[in-house]
Amino acid sequence: MDTALEDRFPTCPLSLTINGKPYTLDVHPWTTLLDLLRSDLELTGTKKGCDHGQCGACTVLIEGQRMNACLKLAVTLEGAAITTVEGLGTPEEMHPVQKAFVEHDAFQCGYCTPGQICSTIGLLNEGHASTREDIRELMSGNLCRCGAYTNIADAIEEVLADRASYREAAE
Amino acid sequence: MKRFTYTRAETVADAVAALAARPQAQFLAGGTNLVDLMKYDVARPDAIIDINSLPLKEIEELPDGGFRIGALASNSGVAYDARIQARFPLLASAILAGASPQLRNAATTGGNLLQRTRCSYFYDPSTPCNKREPGSGCAAIGGLTRMHAILGASDKCIAVHPSDMCVALAALDATVEVVGPDSARDIAFGDFHRLPGDEPQRDNTLACDELVTGIRLEANHFADHYTYLKLRDRLSYAFALVSVAAAMEIADGRVVDLRIALGGVAHRPWRDPLVEAEYAGAPAEDVTFQRVADRLLLQAKGLGGNDFKIPLARKAIVRALRQAAGGTPQSQTIKAIQ
User: Fold this and answer.
1) Tens digit of each residue's pLDDT (9 = 90 or more) over B282-303
2) CB atoms A68 and B99 under 8 Å
3) Domain end: A35, A61, A87, which one?
4) Which of A24, A47, A98, B144 could be A57's S-S partner, Cβ–Cβ 3.0 to 4.6 Å?
């Protein structure tokens, strides 16, 4: 679309927090959270797969809840706290979910992995998964074209078991 | 995506007034369907009225034991609410049969009611579609009809309503609360969604200036005998080919009160209260269930690609009624059908 036409539509002020860092932005109302992250803020860890809520590659955490960033207009997220894969860990100090994915070789090409990891953290926050069957069902919103599902489920199963033993030890 | 202006409404009155001022505007809640339709250029609002700040998120018990679910309560919020799981497990189960966890977190109750069909021709602006562009024709008729209607279709449209939640709400006789510029009103769930007839562009009976504000559920005695059985092309994260919401009250081996609604088969959740009344008092056994299935599917008509849905629906109805009668509802995690 040409710039002149874009300019006829006012941008909207937007304040939000991404990975703990506050942002004050001006966005066009049609900009999705996914495009804001990737194109405007160059946070390219979050991936664009289908762009239609069918693959889960763009999964991020909005106020701790996993959602498809491709279907959220950024302007509707005033004041929200967003976590992307960049906010979880570093190569030196990985998040336990990232560590489990590496240990279990839970990917081949890795394109779906940031979404898988954010979705896993959402699943842990929700607290409805305790069995492998629960994991398979509750991770069904994240597709993996390499078919690494078995290892993804293994990784998540280990994180769940570690959490359970951690809780038992604390009791 | 067509460009549009954006406003955020803070009250129901503001939202309704904003829509009255901009008839080509649309309300935006969770966005899981509308934003997608806008990306495909199927929905082309010139203004978006963001209703996410409205105070419509509550799930509250009413003095008479019923519940009111605010239009902005998320699908997962409703499905995992302990009170809903205890008193309306059919609703919780149906919601968990649909979409993905990410989508259920974002999607709202009101939005679920108002989501559009997933007919692939409706989604493709290069094909004619009477629902998308009234009078242009229907590419699905004579096209690939695997996902299409076997009941209540017209020669203008053979699309189906995609919701799982609405199939349960139809069986539970929910009430839809709506607010317009001058007044508020209730719409019985059975009167909310409509058949395509000559106006397939109208999915429901909501007036163009009204906002859905909530759903009301009456207290019931179905928590022991219910099931939501959904059959689809993959085990999760797919729309129904056929789904069945069944609920009953049983006394002395007889079905005292029967509710059954079908999804994936018509332009609206399909329910026939006359059939339900006819079998009130019948023995809770397979012979009854087979008769109910035959009666519900009496007018069913295949279009070629979806002929298989008729025997599939017959078997699904019998199986669902058996599950409900036996107090063994379908698990939405372990998908083997008992």
Assistant:
1) 999 999 999 999 999 999 999 9
2) no
3) A87
4) A47
Give A11 to chain B, closest Cα distance, Å: 9
Residue ranges, chain A, pLDDT below 70: 1-7, 171
In a shared domain, residues A76 and A117: no
Give the CATH superfamily of B226-325. CO dehydrogenase flavoprotein, C-terminal domain (3.30.390.50)
A50 touches chain B (CB under 8 A): no
Residues of chain A contacting B103 with CB distance shorter than 8 Å? 53, 68, 71, 141
CB-CB under 8 Å, B5 with A30: no
| Domain assignment of residue A44, given as a range | 3-87
Based on the fold, state whether residues A72 and A39 are members of the same structural domain.
yes
Tell me, yes or no, if A128 comes closer than 8 A to chain B by beta carbon: yes
**Helix (H) or strand (E) run with residue A59 in it:** strand A59-62
CATH number of B5-50: 3.30.43.10
**pTM tops 0.95, yes or no:** yes
Strands (E), chain B: 5-8, 25-28, 47-50, 59-61, 67-70, 175-179, 184-188, 211-217, 226-232, 240-251, 254-263, 270-271
Q: Are residue A10 and residue A70 in the same domain, yes or no?
A: yes
Q: Minimal Cα distance from B48: which residue of A?
A: A29
pLDDT of residue A168: 74
HSE-up (13 A, CA, CB side) for residue B48: 27
Q: Where along chain B do its domains lie?
A: 5-50, 226-325
Q: Does A127 touch chain B (CB under 8 A)?
A: no
Domain count for chain A: 2
CATH number for the domain harbouring residue A63: 3.10.20.30
A140 at the B interface (CB within 8 A)?
Answer: yes
Other beta carbons within 10 Å of A13: 11
Whole-angstrom distance, CA of residue B158 vs CA of residue B149: 5
ipTM (interface predicted TM)? 0.97
Compute the average pLDDT of residues B94-123: 98
Q: Is B220:B323 a contact under the CB 8 Å cutoff?
A: no
Nearest C-alpha in A relative to B103: A67
Nearest by CB to residue B31, choosing from A5, A9, A73, is: A73
From the list B6, B103, B332, the residue facing A12 with the nearest CB is B6
**Rounded CA separation B83/B101 (Å):** 20
What b-and-e string marks burial along B301-315, b requiring 16 or more CB atoms within 10 Å of the CB?
A: eebeebeebbebbbe
d(Cα B200, Cα A129) in Å, to the nearest integer?
A: 41
